[in-house]
Structure formats: C-alpha cells, structure tokens
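Weekly modeling sync, notes
Attendees: S.R. (lead), two postdocs, one rotation student

Agenda item 3: backlog of single-chain predictions. S.R. asked that every request posted to the team notebook include the full sequence so nobody has to chase files. The rotation student volunteered to paste the first one in as an example of the format we agreed on. Action items at the bottom.

Example entry:
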Amino acid sequence: MKPRVFYANQRRHQEFTQSENAKLDYTIDWTVQNGSATIATSTWESRDGVTITGTSNTTTTAKASLNAKPGNYRATNKITDSNGAIDTRHIDLVVSVDDNPSQSTDYGERC
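Predicted structure, as returned to the notebook:
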C-alpha cells in the first residue's frame, strides 16, 4: 500500500482517494515547513462528514485515520509549533463506492 504522506512545504492541500470501507492513515510532514521549530500541538477537524480517529503527532509529523461515505470531503490539520506559530494544511478526500467491501482499496493521491 502506498504511504499517504503530504509534505507541508510543498502545498497547502493535497487530494487523496480511497474506497468507502477503507480506514486509512494520513500523515502531514511539517519538517521543512517549520525549520528548526517542532510541533507543540496538533488538532484535526472536519465539518463535512469525515470520521477522524487515531490522531497522533511527533515533533515533525501529524497523523490521523480517516474514513467516510462516498463523496468529497476536507480534513484540516492545525498545528502550533514550538515558536508559537500556528499553521494549517488540508487533506481533500475523495471517497468512492466500494464494489467489493471485503477488499477495501487505497487509490493513492492525486496532485
């Protein structure tokens, strides 16, 4: 399975696709974006139906498991770094109908 990693220094949002029965982990790597600063706090939110579970962070990455019914969604990661700076990045999630629920698929990313 292809890792679902989004590098914060490359863009403000990234689109990924997955099937409706998949519960997949997504990671935002803040390393280059923050320079020598580290992640002090990380929160995830979605206002449009994405279920967010299993959130965690290290000093350089923020991770969450996402799943949803078929449709288009956005999950937002907001961090505060060790210098007090606040920044956000978005994961746009396209969830497709799962024709074979016993074999959930990760379709990867679309740039």
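Discussion: group reviewed the output briefly. The first strand starts at residue 5 and ends at 7.
Action items: rotation student to repeat for the remaining queue; S.R. to check formatting next week.
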